[in-house]
Amino acid sequence: MITLNRPERANAQTMELLDDLDAAWEKAATDDEVRVIVLRGNGKHFSSGHDLSSGTARPEKITLDWIYKIEARKYLEYSLRWRNVPKPSIAAVQGKCIAGALLLVWPCDLIVAAENAQFSDPVVYLGIGGVEYHGHTWELGARKAKEILFTGRSVSAREAEQIGMVNNVVPLENLQEETMTLARQIAQNDPFALRQAKRAVNQTLDVQGFYAAIQSVFDIHQTGHGHALSATGYPVLLRKDGMKEKLKNS
Predict the structure, then answer these.
(1) What does the alpha-carbon distance between residue 129 and residue 221 come to, in Å, rounded to a whole number?
(2) Taking residues 186-214, what's their average pLDDT?
(3) Which of 153, 157, 163, 208 has its CA 20 to 30 A from that of 229?
(4) Exposure of 60 in the CB half-sphere (CA atoms within 13 A)
C-alpha cells in the first residue's frame, strides 16, 4: 500500500512528494511479493492537487521551457509510468480529489471511492484548459468532460460511478476495508494473467489513440502556461489561493 501522508496540507503534492511517490511505485512494481498496488491518502482528503506554494527552486525568470521540462517529467511521465506498471492498481479516494490529484488516480486500474469523494479539475480558473494528463475525455466521455472543464464543478462519487470513472462507492468508514477486500480478491489470480489482462486493455486504449492524445493534449496544456507568461508574467502561481477555495466548508 502506498499512502500520501501530508494530511495537514490535504496531501498537496510537492515535487519532492512526487519523486517519493514515483520511487514507491517503482519499489512496488519490482517486488515479487506485491500482487496489487493500492494508493490511498491519509486524512480528510485524498489530495488537493499540486502544491503551488512549495519551496521548489525557480529561476529568476520563469520561461515556458522551464515549465515544460518540469511538467513533462514530474507530471506526464510519472503518470504514464504508473499507468503502465504491469500489476493491477487501485486508488482509494475520500474527500476532495482536485486537479493534480487526478494525475494520481486516473493512472490506476480501478478506483474505489468513499461516498463523500468529489473529483474536480477547476484549472480553467487559472487560464489553462485542464491538467497535464488529459484523462478527461477517456474517463468522462466527451460532453461530460467539456461540462466539467467549462464549469469547474465537482463530480460526486455516485456520478463518477454512473459515468464509469469509479468502480465502487462505499461508506467512508469502510473505504480501506472494501479496497483491501478487492485487492485481496484480485491478488488470488495468476500474476502473469493479470499482467496480460491489464496490457490487453491498455493496448486497446492506445490503439484507439489514448497515448497519442495524452501527448498532444499535454502540448495544448502548455499553451495555457505560454498565454499566462505573455499576458501578465505568470498568474498561475500568483492565484494559487483560488484553488484552496475548493477545500473550504468541506
Answers:
(1) 6
(2) 97
(3) 153
(4) 0
